[in-house]
Amino acid sequence: MRGWCEIETGKCTKQRSNNNLQTVCEDILVDKATNFYAGLLHSPPVAYKEELLPLLEECAYPEHSKGTIVRTPTSDDIYWKLHNLLKKIIREA
């Protein structure tokens, strides 16, 4: 998770700029121009690519909040959709 600090006061707040699920999706699973490596799911199975990539994007950037410092947390609904889809992909592999 990433914290949020007020430059004016020099103090960090209790507010987080993302949650753990967003961090996993953003920093590990999806490709980012600032990453020096490809995300772990940068090349998903063709049969699932159309469903998986938008789901990962929504996981990392809820409500299309890419570039926003403080984001809405990723919903439980997105977590379960991603969880179930990844389980399905693994079972069929």
Salient structural properties:
93 residues, mainly alpha, two-stranded antiparallel ribbon, 45% helix, Protein FAM69C-like isoform X2, FAM69_kinase_dom
Describe the structure.
With 93 residues, this protein is mainly α. Helix 1 crosses helix 2. It is 45% helix and 11% strand. It has one domain. The protein is elongated, with a radius of gyration of 15 Å. A two-stranded antiparallel ribbon has the order 1-2.
Report the average pLDDT across residues: 79
Our count of domains comes out at 1
List low-confidence stretches.
none
- Summarize the helix and strand pattern as letters: EEHHH
User: How many strands appear in the DSSP assignment?
Assistant: 2
Shape: elongated
* Major sheet description: 2 strands, antiparallel
Q: Helix coverage percent of residues?
A: 40-55%
Distance between the termini: 31 Å
Q: How are strands sequenced across the largest beta sheet?
A: 1-2
Strand content: 5-15%
Number of helices: 3
The secondary-structure class comes to mainly alpha
Instruction: Report the C-alpha radius of gyration, rounded.
Output: 15 Å
Please specify the SSE layout and strand pairing.
Elements: E1 3-6, E2 11-16, H1 20-29, H2 46-60, H3 76-92
Antiparallel strand pairs: 1-2
Helix pairs in contact: 1-2, 2-3
Short description:
This protein is mostly helical. It has helices at residues 20-29, 46-60, 76-92, and strands at residues 3-6, 11-16. The protein has a two-stranded antiparallel ribbon with strand order 1-2.
